[in-house]
Inverse folding.
C-alpha cells in the first residue's frame, strides 16, 4: 500500500497552520483549570485526550508508520480510538446520553453527547487525509470549551455555536458527500483497493471503521476460499446488476462509474467485482457510511460499513440533527446539495447506480430508546419529511432512476453461529438458484393473479392477518399486474410483486415477530383503509404510546401515514428451509426474508420515479402496475405528496399463513396458498423444501 492523501484543501498551508494552532490549544486543556460548570472539566479533558490520540494517528499517517505497522499494532490502535463506545465501557462514555446527562445536566449533556459523537468522525477523516475536517471539528471543540470557561449562558451559546458550525460547514460535509458518490477520483477507498494485494488484512484498519471480531473472522474465512468461489460470489451480483439494465431496457454502454457499498471484511469479493468492472472501463465510487449527522439518515448505513463498536451508540444518536433542523437549515442544505450536483454534473450521466453487498447474522441486541437522547419536535418531523422529499427530488433530477440499475445481495457473517460455514454454502446456493425453474413457476402464479380483482390474505394460528389487496385492471393478453422477479437486481430470486391499487385495499396485517433494519417488532399490527396505514401497534413496550412512537420512528419515518407500496408473494422456499433448519429466521436480512412468504411494503412502490419507463416480463407482457393513485395524482405537480423516500418490507412466514387467494370480479376464488403450502397447479415443486 502507498500513501494516498495529504493536506486535503485548496489552501493547504492555511489549513496546516490552523491545525497546528488548534492542536496546540487542545494539548493545553489537560494541564489547565477547566470550566467551573457541573462535570464540564472532566468532559473536556477526556475528549481532548481522544482528539490528541487522533492527532498522533495523523502523524503516523504522514510519516508512513501506518503502512509499516503490524496487524496487531493496528488492531490495538483501532480499539483505543473506539474504546469508550464498546458495550463494556459505554456506561461511562459521554457519547452515552444517559451518562452525559448525569454528569453535565440533561440539556447540556444531551447536546455534548451529540457533539462527542460528531467528533468521533475525526477518526475517519484523519485516515482519509481530510485534515481540513479534522481542523474544523477541533476548532468547534475549543469554541465550546471557551464558552463553558466564560460561564455565561452556557447552554444557549453552545447550542448556537453547534448550530452555526453545522450550517456553515454543510458546504464542506454535504458537498463532499455528493462528490464521493459521483467522482471516482475522490474515492480514498478505491485507491486503497487499487494498491491492495488481495491478501493483507491491514486494509480493514485503514478504512477508519471500528474493526471487531466479526470483520476479522469474515476476512479470515474468505481468505481460505478458492478463487473460483470468490469469483462466483462476485459474478452473482455483477451479473445481476447488468441484467437490471437489460430488464429495464436501459443502455449500459455509456456508464463509467459504479457505486459499490459493502460490509468491511468482504474486501476479497469486492476486489473480484472491481476487476470485472475494470475490464468494462467502469471505475468504482466507494465511500464510507456517513459519520456526520449532516449526511446520516437515522442509524441506517449508506456506504461501506462495519458492525461498529456498539449498535446502541448509533441508535442513541439517530436524531442528532434535531439540534439544528429548522427552516433556515433546510433551505441551506438544499442549496448546498443543488450547488454540488451542478458542480459535479459531468459525472451524473455516466453514473451507473449502486451495488450493495450486505452481511447478516450478527447477534441481535435489544436497543433502548432513551429519554436523554436527542429527539424531534412535531414541527421538526414535518420539516424532516419535507427535506427528505425535496432531497429525493433533487437527486432524481440529476440521477434519474430510469437511467441506472442497482443490485443487492447478502451473505452470512460468522456471528450467525457454529454452523456458519454450512449456512454460507447454503446462502451461495440460495443466491444462485436455477432461473429457468422459477421462471415457469412464477408464470403460473402471475397468470392466476392477472385474472384477479384483489388478493385476500389470511393468517393462521396466532397470526391475525386478514387483508384484501386491490389490483389494477389489465389486459391479460398483452399486459401483466405482477413482475416476474428472477435473478437480477434483487438477489436471491423468488417473488412476484405488484404496486397495489390503494382504493379497495383494506384490512389488517399482523406478524408475531419480525426484524426490520435490525430492530425487533413484536406483534406488529398495521391496519389499512383504502391502502393507507390508519392505525398501528406492537407489544415491544408496556406503554401503548411508546409502541406507537417506535413504529412512527422506524416504519413510518415521521410520516403521519404511508401507503401500501408493494404486495408480493415470496417463492424462495429453499431460503425458508435454510432458515428453519438452522433456526436463523431472526437473523435473516430482509432481502432473503422477504422471499420466504408473502410480504407487504409500506412506503414507495418498487418503481418509484420510474413510472414512465416501460417494464416487461420475460414473456413480453408489459407490467402496468407501476404506481398507485397518490403517485398518479401528484408525482409531476407535487412530488412531496407522491413519494416518501422509504420502503419497508414486512413478511408473513409460510408457517403463519392460512390462505392466499386470487379473487375475480365475479367472486370466483383461485387459491394459491393454503395452510402454508402452494396449491396452485404448476407450483408443486415449491413445496418440496417445505416438507
Amino acid at each position: 500500500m502507498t500513501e494516498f492523501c495529504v493536506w486535503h484543501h485548496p489552501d493547504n498551508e492555511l489549513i496546516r497552520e490552523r491545525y497546528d494552532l488548534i492542536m496546540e490549544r487542545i494539548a493545553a486543556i489537560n494541564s489547565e483549570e477547566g470550566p467551573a460548570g457541573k462535570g464540564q472539566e472532566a468532559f473536556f479533558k477526556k475528549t481532548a485526550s481522544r482528539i490528541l490520540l487522533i492527532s498522533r494517528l495523523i502523524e503516523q499517517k504522514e510519516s508512513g508508520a501506518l503502512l509499516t505497522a503490524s496487524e496487531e499494532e493496528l488492531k490495538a490502535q483501532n480499539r483505543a480510538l473506539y474504546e469508550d463506545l464498546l458495550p463494556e465501557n459505554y456506561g461511562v462514555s459521554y457519547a452515552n446520553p444517559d451518562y452525559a446527562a448525569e454528569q453535565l445536566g440533561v440539556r447540556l449533556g444531551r447536546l455534548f453527547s451529540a457533539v462527542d459523537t460528531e467528533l468521533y468522525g475525526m477518526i475517519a477523516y484523519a485516515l482519509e487525509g481530510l485534515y481540513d475536517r479534522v481542523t474544523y471539528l477541533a476548532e468547534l471543540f475549543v469554541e465550546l470549551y471557551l464558552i463553558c470557561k466564560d460561564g455565561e449562558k452556557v447552554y444557549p451559546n453552545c447550542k448556537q455555536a453547534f448550530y452555526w458550525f453545522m450550517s456553515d460547514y454543510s458546504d464542506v460535509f454535504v458537498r463532499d458527500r455528493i462528490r464521493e458518490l459521483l467522482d471516482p477520483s475522490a474515492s480514498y477507498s478505491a485507491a486503497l483497493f487499487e494498491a491492495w494485494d488481495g491478501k493483507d488484512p491491514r486494509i480493514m484498519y485503514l478504512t477508519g471503521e471500528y474493526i471487531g471480531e466479526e470483520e476479522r473472522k469474515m476476512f479470515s474465512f474468505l481468505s481460505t476460499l478458492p478463487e473460483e468461489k470468490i469469483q462466483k460470489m462476485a459474478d452473482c451480483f455483477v451479473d445481476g446488476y447488468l441484467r437490471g439494465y437489460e430488464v429495464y431496457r436501459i443502455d449500459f454502454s455509456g456508464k463509467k462509474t459504479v457505486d459499490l457499498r459493502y460490509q468491511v471484511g468482504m474486501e476479497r469479493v469486492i476486489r473480484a467485482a472491481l476487476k470485472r468492472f475494470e475490464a468494462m472501463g467502469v471505475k468504482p465510487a466507494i465511500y464510507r457510511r456517513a459519520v456526520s449527522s449532516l449526511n446520516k439518515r437515522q442509524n441506517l448505513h449508506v456506504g461501506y460499513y462495519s458492525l461498529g463498536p456498539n449498535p446502541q451508540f448509533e441508535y442513541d444518536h439517530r436524531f442528532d440533527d434535531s439540534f439544528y433542523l429548522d427552516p433556515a437549515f433546510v433551505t441551506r442544505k438544499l442549496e448546498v446539495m443543488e450547488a454540488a450536483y451542478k458542480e459535479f454534473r459531468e459525472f451524473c450521466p455516466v453514473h451507473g447506480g449502486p451495488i450493495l453487498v450486505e452481511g447478516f447474522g450478527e447477534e441481535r441486541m435489544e436497543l433502548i430508546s432513551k429519554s436523554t437522547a436527542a429527539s424531534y419536535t412535531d414541527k421538526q418531523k414535518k420539516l424532516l419529511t419535507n427535506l427528505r422529499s425535496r432531497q429525493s427530488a433533487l437527486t432524481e433530477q440529476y440521477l434519474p432512476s430510469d437511467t441506472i440499475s442497482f443490485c443487492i445481495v447478502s451473505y452470512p457473517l460468522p456471528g450467525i453461529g457454529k454452523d456458519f460455514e454450512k449456512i454460507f454454502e447454503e446462502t451461495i446456493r440460495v443466491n444462485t438458484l436455477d432461473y429457468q425453474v422459477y421462471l415457469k413457476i412464477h408464470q403460473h402464479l402471475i397468470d392466476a393473479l392477472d385474472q384477479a380483482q384483489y388478493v385476500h390474505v389470511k393468517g393462521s394460528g396466532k397470526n391475525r392477518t386478514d387483508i384484501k389487496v386491490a389490483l389494477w385492471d389489465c389486459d391479460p393478453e398483452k399486459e401483466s399486474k405482477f413482475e416476474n422477479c428472477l435473478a437480477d437486481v434483487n438477489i436471491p430470486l423468488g417473488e412476484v410483486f405488484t404496486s397495489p391499487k390503494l382504493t379497495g385495499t383494506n384490512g389488517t396485517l399482523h406478524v408475531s415477530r419480525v426484524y426490520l433494519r435490525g430492530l425487533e417488532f413484536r406483534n406488529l399490527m398495521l391496519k389499512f383503509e383504502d391502502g393507507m396505514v390508519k392505525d398501528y401497534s406492537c407489544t415491544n413496550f408496556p406503554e401503548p404510546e411508546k409502541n406507537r412512537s417506535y413504529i412512527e420512528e422506524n416504519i413510518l419515518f415521521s410520516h403521519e401515514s404511508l401507503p401500501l407500496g408493494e404486495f408480493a408473494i415470496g417463492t424462495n422456499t429453499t431460503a425458508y428451509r435454510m432458515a428453519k433448519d438452522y433456526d436463523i429466521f431472526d437473523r435473516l436480512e430482509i432481502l432473503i426474508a422477504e422471499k420466504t412468504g408473502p410480504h407487504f411494503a409500506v412506503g414507495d412502490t418498487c418503481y418509484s420515479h420510474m413510472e414512465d419507463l416501460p417494464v416487461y416480463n420475460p414473456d413480453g407482457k408489459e407490467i402496468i402496475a407501476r404506481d398507485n393513485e397518490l403517485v398518479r395524482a401528484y408525482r409531476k405537480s407535487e412530488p412531496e405528496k407522491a413519494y416518501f423516500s422509504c420502503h419497508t418490507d414486512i413478511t408473513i412466514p409460510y408457517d403463519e399463513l392460512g390462505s392466499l387467494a386470487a379473487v375475480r370480479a365475479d367472486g370466483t376464488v383461485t387459491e394459491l396458498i393454503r395452510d402454508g403450502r402452494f396449491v396452485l397447479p404448476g407450483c408443486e415443486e415449491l413445496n418440496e423444501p417445505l416438507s
Notes: The first strand starts at residue 257 and ends at 262.
